[in-house]
Amino acid sequence: MLCKENNIDLILAVGGGSVIDSAKAIAIGAFYEGDVWDFFTGKASIENCLPLGVVLTIPAAGSESSGGSVITNEEGLYKRAVGHEMMRPKFAILNPVLTYTLPTYQTACGITDMMAHILERYFTNEKNVDLTDRLCESTLKAIINNAHTVIEDPTNYDARAEIMWAGTLAHNDLLGTGRIGDWGSHDIEHEISGIYDIAHGAGLAIIFPAWMKYVYKHDVNRFAQFANRVWDVEIDLNNLEKTALAGIKKTEQFFSSIGMPITLEEVNINDEHFEEMAQKGTERGPLGNFIKLDQEDVYKIYQLAK
């Protein structure tokens, strides 16, 4: 209503992913007479959008350079996404100094979130994507190499700048060029943070390794490549499965080392809502692209994450 009544012609989002995504929802809702939630359920199509600018304060979601938005509807505790090129911000100001005062936990959640954005794109069924494989791997390694520095020395400008830039590259679609990403882990996690209000990055630290354990046999070679190029695990040509599992273990150990939970038990979540979350997550169809996951698959991944 404010946008319509005051002829607002630009929205400036100052904050992190939640602020930016909310601003995007407002920007598309400014031209719609119905409930903005309709866009997130597929009942309405985006036809116009107010231009957005961003001053980023939390490197994490990558929303400052993406065309997507994720919001939660407290009626039913649904967390859903919508995307359109018109929603991509016109500009974003990234000043690492603005991140100096972030709590350590939020810094770690942001690191996990941006890594997950890369991993969603990395695990693809597309062939002949060596260039973007290498871009994904090098961006992951840059994040890993600077993560402990920003946690232990929050005012280290150089490390903060590396993390901030990596978070933008992780989700501006460059790394997904020529690839079909998975996005199953994000959808599975959205059901957790929709009900329990857990930080998205923390939820991803729990779900992504569980997803990896569930699907790695679909393409053991890719998981072994990930282990070798990102975590420096020596490839065992006689046992690629061992190499793949070592890479998954390294991923878990890294998340834990920066203060992230890696099991649902650590955040006091039991199996009470597993069936509900699996049902809600798949009510519009199977999740993911690397492997299509139905309701039973999603339930089993929650079980692996316990």
Automatic annotation (TrEMBL):
Note the superkingdom of the native organism.
Bacteria
Q: Name one Pfam family in it.
A: ADH_Fe_C
Does the keyword Oxidoreductase belong to this entry?
A: yes
Question: MF terms per GO, please?
Answer: alcohol dehydrogenase (NADP+) activity; butanol dehydrogenase (NAD+) activity; metal ion binding; methylglyoxal reductase (NADPH) (acetol producing) activity
**Keywords attached to this entry:** Oxidoreductase
Q: Alcohol dehydrogenase iron-type/glycerol dehydrogenase GldA domain spans which residues?
A: 2-96
Output the InterPro entries linked to this UniProt entry. ADH_Fe/GldA, ADH_Fe_C, ADH_Fe_CS, BDH-like
Which intervals hold domain Fe-containing alcohol dehydrogenase-like C-terminal? 108-303
Gene Ontology annotations for the cellular component aspect, listed alphabetically: cytosol
UniProt-recorded name of the protein: NADH-dependent butanol dehydrogenase A
